[in-house]
């Protein structure tokens, strides 16, 4: 069976058992503050388990894209070094929401594996939860009894809490689970050692293939367990492992899930894959084909590589793949992006986002490859300098501070530094590096640390968002919880009637007040979590059950919703001007400005920007009324022409916002008619990433303020220039300035010529080399010209010039070409720059540094004399 057939058989089987087949949710989570990525099949159904939302059907089945690279579930370091760990993987799952439970879940699993897929029964083992006295949890006798009717009792294994009690995170839905393991060894191997001894012992051919979770508890923040309102089934079967079992392979990487990608890597790199676990070349190929899947799906779902949050994780995965291919496959040029087409061919039919976003995914990956390969090349130069400096100091260990700086600041892989150092007979301080890394992690964790207490529920009542229609409402608190972070102690509250819009869809959450006759609290932010609208306030009411008035900060909300509405008009205008390939790739909508990221591969021209701006303002002037469809079937909305964004998870019913011909699925707040926007002004257009452009703009009050400031500046300039024709006056000034600059440059060159003649005779003999250390007030350009002239004319020389031009300290070092292999200008400048509290760099023959401490030039002068 091919992998496509295996996936389809799973879905067909559960469809025959009355399950609704649903598409995979995006791999990137945008509305769950507890997770960056879908790390299991159950993530998109979490609200159903907690009772916050009603399931679309009592039985559901799907295959979910998952990513495990951070937090509790982190498989990144194992990827490539064994046969079955992955960053991105598919999780086949069937779900029951208060419908069937253990008996049917076990029966379905057994029938599918043994009768539909035909796995020999004698190759299967199952585990059940053995209980845990510390949690007052008993052995899962029900699961044991149900399994007895399918499998011999000697193949039912007791499992501990670590292996057989499933928890998604520190808190949330959880419960006992029953794993199904398959023994893929040869008959000869099975005769030597029973599979019973190898279950859950990390044997590469005795692996867990399916986990049946019986969700019946909720783990609270205080670590206690409480019963969920209903019993649910949550199962997850590793698609890649299932393919390994059904295709008779001993490694996931030998299945047709990966072999087309491996074949492409072989062709591009000229390296042959042998499947040897310890072979660094084979490890690198496994890393590459795994990581390209993770990165491609994340980008297709809207997460671009970046320096923070989920984007940083994606960049880290991609850079790990580039690093391995650079070191062990000899790939010095971008090539991972060429694998995207293979992935599209393999998976595009089932995951259409790969087909739709393929060009963008390829361009982003190629750009990231080019950037990181430059980082590696520059890092190699830095490492070489560091090694030379270490050898010159008669040391054997590279300085920890510099090694960590290479890793942390410049993104250079620490293991590559280690390998290069070992080739030169040096080492790095492993413990010191680990300590520096841990300290950085602690600092990062401390900055974002937040302690969240359990909810105190005052009333079990559905919360109602009224913010589409009103800015304030009478309300009361239905639940609250305490939150502690570095800024102090706060409280999150859920209101029975909330006018506060929760952050989402790019729009910032509302601020405002929560008050009554006795007390008043500031609403600092509003977010959504697990279907609840949560407002953060700066204290706890004395009477939490009292009636309050919730009031939105109206001016900020009005500005935000004007900016949000204008993003819809902007999106439409961009598609009209640039083409229908334009799609929104991210946005920020706040009261002061808007940011809009979109797919486009060229910088926009001034003419294009002006045309887009004019089109948007024309729509504003038309005073187009808002048409809002709050609860429309998604199919009907799409048929009407509504734009749906890739990477977003939509329900069966959606909210559609329409301004004339502009139609989008959107949950944000909007103006009642376009005239309320006032005016739209583009402030900047730039690159956000490869294939992604970014527009920053303003509207409404901020646009009016912008033009008033421009008017004021023109008036002030006119007064300064004593002319109403400001443009012509500035042109005249520029012409005069250019003439004067040319005269000054000529004078500087004449002065520099005189200096060169004097300096040539000022070199001191230092052994078999010449050294010149000179103080001057010449500017940087003149100093550079002189040093390059002296380097040519004075062999075996080092020149150090210390300048105080314009009252700013600057040091310049030149090393003649015949000494560049012995002395490094960059290393010398780094040491001297410490005296002026500065830094800089350059190449082996020339380097400069600026600083803050002018008085330090004297110390630098004395230090340079002793080179």
UniProtKB/TrEMBL annotation:
Pfam families: DHHA1 (PF02272), tRNA-synt_2c (PF01411), tRNA_SAD (PF07973). It is found in: Cytoplasm. It comes from the Bacteria. Its EC number is 6.1.1.7. The keyword tRNA-binding applies. SUPFAM superfamilies: Class II aaRS and biotin synthetases, Putative anticodon-binding domain of alanyl-tRNA synthetase (AlaRS), ThrRS/AlaRS common domain, Translation proteins. PANTHER family: ALANINE--TRNA LIGASE, CYTOPLASMIC (PTHR11777:SF9), ALANYL-TRNA SYNTHETASE (PTHR11777). NCBIfam families: alaS. This is Alanine--tRNA ligase. It comes from Chryseobacterium cheonjiense. The gene is alaS.
């Amino acid at each position: 069976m091919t992998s496509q057939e295996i996936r389809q058989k799973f879905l067909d089987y559960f469809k025959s058992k009355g399950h609704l087949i649903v598409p995979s949710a995006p791999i990137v989570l945008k509305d769950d503050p507890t997770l960056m990525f879908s790390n299991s099949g159950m993530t998109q159904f979490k609200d159903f388990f907690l009772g916050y939302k009603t399931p679309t059907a009592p039985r559901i089945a799907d295959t979910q894209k998952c990513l495990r690279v951070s937090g509790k579930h982190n498989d990144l370091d194992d990827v490539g070094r064994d046969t079955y760990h992955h960053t991105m993987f598919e999780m086949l799952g069937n779900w029951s929401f208060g419908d069937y439970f253990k008996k049917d879940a076990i029966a379905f699993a057994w029938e599918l594996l043994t009768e539909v897929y035909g796995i020999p029964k004698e190759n299967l083992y199952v585990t059940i939860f053995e209980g845990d006295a510390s949690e007052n949890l008993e052995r899962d006798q029900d699961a044991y009894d149900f399994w007895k009717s399918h499998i011999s009792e000697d193949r039912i294994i007791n499992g501990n809490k670590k292996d057989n009690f499933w928890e998604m995170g520190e808190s949330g839905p959880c419960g006992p689970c029953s794993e199904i393991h398959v023994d893929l060894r040869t008959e000869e191997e099975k005769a030597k050692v029973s599979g019973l001894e190898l279950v859950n012992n990390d044997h590469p051919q005795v692996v867990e293939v399916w986990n049946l979770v019986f969700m019946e508890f909720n783990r609270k923040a205080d670590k206690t367990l409480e019963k969920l309102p209903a019993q649910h089934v949550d199962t997850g079967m590793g698609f890649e492992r299932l393919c390994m079992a059904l295709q008779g392979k001993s490694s996931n990487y030998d299945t047709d899930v990966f072999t087309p990608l491996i074949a492409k890597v072989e062709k591009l790199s000229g390296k042959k894959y042998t499947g040897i676990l310890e072979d660094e070349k084979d490890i690198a190929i496994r890393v590459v084909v795994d990581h390209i899947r993770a990165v491609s799906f994340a980008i297709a779902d809207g997460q671009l590589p970046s320096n923070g949050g989920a984007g940083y994780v994606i960049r880290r995965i991609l850079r790990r793949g580039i690093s391995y291919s650079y070191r062990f496959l000899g790939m010095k040029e971008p090539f991972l992006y060429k694998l995207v087409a293979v992935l599209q061919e393999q998976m595009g039919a089932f995951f259409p986002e790969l087909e739709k976003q393929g060009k963008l995914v390829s361009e982003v990956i190629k750009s990231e490859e080019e950037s990181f390969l430059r980082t590696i090349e520059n890092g190699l130069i830095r490492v070489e300098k560091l090694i030379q400096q270490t050898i010159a100091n008669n040391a054997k260990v590279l300085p920890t501070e510099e090694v960590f700086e290479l890793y942390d600041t410049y993104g250079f892989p620490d293991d590559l530094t280690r390998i290069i150092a070992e080739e030169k007979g040096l080492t790095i301080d492993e413990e010191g590096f680990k300590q520096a890394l841990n300290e950085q992690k602690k600092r990062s964790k401390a900055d974002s640390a937040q302690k969240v207490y359990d909810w105190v529920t005052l009333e079990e009542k559905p919360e109602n968002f009224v913010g589409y229609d009103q800015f304030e409402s009478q309300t009361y608190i239905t639940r609250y919880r305490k939150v502690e972070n570095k800024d102090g102690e706060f409280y999150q509250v859920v209101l029975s009637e909330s006018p506060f819009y929760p952050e989402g869809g790019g729009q910032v959450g509302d601020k405002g007040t929560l008050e009554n006759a006795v007390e008043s609290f500031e609403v600092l932010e509003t977010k959504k979590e697990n279907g609840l609208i949560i407002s953060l306030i700066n204290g706890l009411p004395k009477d939490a059950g009292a009636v309050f008035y919730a009031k939105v900060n109206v001016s900020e909300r009005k500005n935000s919703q004007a900016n949000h509405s204008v993003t819809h008009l902007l999106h439409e205008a961009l598609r009209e001007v640039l083409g229908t390939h334009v799609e929104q790739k991210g946005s920020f909508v706040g009261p002061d400005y808007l940011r809009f990221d979109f797919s486009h591969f060229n910088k926009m021209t001034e003419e294009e920007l002006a045309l887009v701006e004019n089109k948007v303002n024309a729509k504003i002037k038309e005073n187009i009324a808002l048409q809002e469809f709050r609860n429309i079937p998604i199919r009907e909305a799409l048929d009407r022409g509504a734009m749906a964004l890739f990477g977003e998870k939509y329900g069966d019913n959606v909210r559609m916002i329409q301004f004339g011909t502009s139609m989008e699925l959107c949950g944000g707040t909007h103006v009642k008619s376009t005239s309320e926007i006032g005016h739209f002004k583009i402030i900047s257009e730039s690159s956000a990433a490869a294939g992604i452009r970014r527009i920053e703009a303003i509207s409404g009050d901020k646009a009016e303020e912008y033009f008033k400031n421009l008017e004021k500046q023109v008036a002030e300039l006119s007064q300064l220039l004593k002319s109403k024709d400001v443009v012509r006056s500035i042109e005249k000034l520029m012409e005069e300035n250019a003439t004067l600059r040319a005269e000054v440059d000529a004078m500087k060159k004449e002065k520099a010529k005189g200096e060169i003649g004097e300096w040539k005779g000022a070199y001191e003999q230092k052994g078999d080399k010449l050294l010149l250390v000179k103080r001057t007030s010449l500017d940087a350009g003149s100093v550079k010209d002189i040093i390059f002239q002296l380097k040519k004319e004075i062999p075996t020389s080092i020149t150090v010039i210390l300048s105080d031009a314009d009252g700013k300290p600057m040091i310049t070092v030149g090393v003649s070409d015949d000494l560049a292999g012995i002395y490094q200008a960059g290393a010398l400048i780094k040491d001297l720059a410490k005296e002026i509290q500065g830094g800089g760099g350059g190449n082996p023959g020339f380097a400069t540094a600026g600083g803050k401490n002018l008085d330090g030039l004297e110390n630098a002068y004395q230090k340079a004399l002793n080179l």
